[in-house]
Amino acid sequence: MNNNPVTFNLSDVDRLWLSTIGLEREGIRLQPNGRISDRSHPIEWGNRTFHPYLQTDFAECQLELITPPL
């Protein structure tokens, strides 16, 4: 018995070509010695709250790169 519902069928492929996809990549900023960075968000990257592509999540050291859906 299969309790997992099918969420994708081959017949859905045509509709995927019409969809838009945005990507999100998260990473942790590290110090040269390998420890998690305790420095503030680099000013050269712009304001982390309003930057369209570079943001931080719940921690200052966690960097998110977010692309618009295209």
From TrEMBL:
Residues 18-69 form the Glutamate--cysteine ligase domain. Belongs to the glutamate--cysteine ligase type 1 family. One of its GO terms (biological process) is glutathione biosynthetic process. Pathway: Sulfur metabolism; glutathione biosynthesis; glutathione from L-cysteine and L-glutamate: step 1/2. Its EC number is 6.3.2.2. It is an enzyme of class 6 (ligase). It comes from the Bacteria. InterPro entries: Gln_synth/guanido_kin_cat_dom (IPR014746), Glu_cys_ligase (IPR007370), Glut_cys_ligase (IPR006334). This is Glutamate--cysteine ligase. GO terms for cellular component: cytosol. It catalyses: L-cysteine + L-glutamate + ATP = gamma-L-glutamyl-L-cysteine + ADP + phosphate + H(+). One of its GO terms (molecular function) is metal ion binding. Keywords: ATP-binding, Glutathione biosynthesis, Ligase, Nucleotide-binding.
